């Protein structure tokens, strides 16, 4: 029997071995880049690099969640997407706090380190984006994965601009401004993901009621 459109049916994309393989690849890339970038960010004293590193960590966790709910019902997938959106929102708020701390302490990051690590991060995120683009029109859970990757590419470009700004001005303000921009992207992406997930959750809940009624009538 082909999968129906109700919540009781798993997503066809959930059974896709290709999508599962891609998720494992991008999970490994993000986990590795988190370790590399968090160390470089601390050594360079860069709020933007540290923010980007934590973004890699959040994405790795999100990809792990996506792998967990593959093949599950629409409600589960929508719920997972909502959790990922909420985590992105918390990340954005944390970055805002980090920027305030660095601004108060007058930190000036090491621009060359920012440039090298930012370039590596950009290359890795472009690879992830290319791999995930084929799945950008799926359900809220799949769209959330692609949105995260798209935001990461934009953030990496901003980090490189921050490195140039720090090098040219000798101050940390370009770094702070980019970190704020990254926080804004995270908050915007979080709102978009949570909105899609809430809509799909409600849609799935609406479809469950007729199914349960039909099942109950069938037993009478």
Task: Give the structure's gist in a few sentences.
The chain has 220 residues and is mainly alpha-helical.
What does this structure look like?
The chain is mostly helical. The protein has a single domain, classed as Alpha-lytic protease prodomain-like (Up-down Bundle). 83% of the residues lie in helices and 0% in strands. The chain contains 6 helices and no strands. It has helices at 17-44, 47-69, 74-105, 111-132, 140-169, 173-219. The longest helix is centred in the last third of the chain and has 47 residues, at 173-219. The model is unreliable at 1-15 and 209-216 (pLDDT under 50).
Descriptive labels:
220 residues; mainly alpha; Alpha-lytic protease prodomain-like; disordered N terminus; Cation transporter; transport
Topology, please?
Blueprint: H1 17-44, H2 47-69, H3 74-105, H4 111-132, H5 140-169, H6 173-219
Indicate the structural class.
mainly alpha
Q: What is the name of the CATH class?
A: Mainly Alpha
Run of helices and strands: HHHHHH
Shape: elongated
Give the fraction of residues assigned to helices.
Answer: over 70%
- The figure for the number of domains is 1
CATH architecture descriptor text: Up-down Bundle
* Rg over C-alpha atoms, rounded to the nearest angstrom: 20 Å
The total count of strands amounts to 0
Low-confidence stretches: 1-15, 209-216
Subcellular location: Membrane
Protein name: Cation transporter
Organism: Pseudooceanicola lipolyticus
InterPro entries: Cation_efflux_TM, Cation_efflux_TMD_sf, CDF/SLC30A
